[in-house]
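Write out the 3D structure for:
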Amino acid sequence: MTKYSKQTRLLVAVDCIIFGFDGENLKLLLIHRGMEPEKGKWSLMGGFVQSEESTNEAAGRILKQLTGLEGVYMEQLHAFGNPGRDPMERVISLVYFALIDIHKYKEQLSDEYHPQWFLLKDMPELIFDHEEMVQAALKNLRYKAALHPVLFELLPEKFTLPQLQALYTGVYDAEFDKRNFSRKVLSTGLLIKQKDKDKENSKKGAFYYVIDKSKYKDKFQSFLNFVPNPDNFLF
């Protein structure tokens, strides 16, 4: 078959943004870049799409190769294609992002590329346009969380209301009134109170809750009630 004539061949890469929650803080997973240019500097997990694989397959392969993580659901954010974004060659990057409970995957992390979790406010300087990618993913995450309870993907199966409040505080970089937050989140009808408590973080203990999966899809809009200034994230 004849190739398209007079067309420039470009490299296609994928970059993976992994947000994780450890029960107290929202974090971002970064690695030390293993190739030039900018070898050894902090980077997202990235690599090139091979001719025989889809972009989704490439994202999974690259994430496992660079961090050891596998079985992580990722979704595509969008493409970054500024002509000068990579000083080596013309590279278009398709950005993927994922939400994970850190505790579920901490045993998978390999040491080869020194993956490390960072608080978003402590994120180091990143190569190329990777910081722009992170900010785009965070804005998308805030937008989705303002519409439905996607942030539950970051929580363990059983969680406390203080854990949930800490998660929303980290995502939106905003403080929530404790009593008001609890009242509004319980009013959604999405949570089922458990009999046992988390007694490690306070003497009195906080009751555990689980998500009511039978109502999960039908109650998306209820979460607009307690997201701060939701119109700022609906674009």
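The chain has a mean pLDDT of 87.
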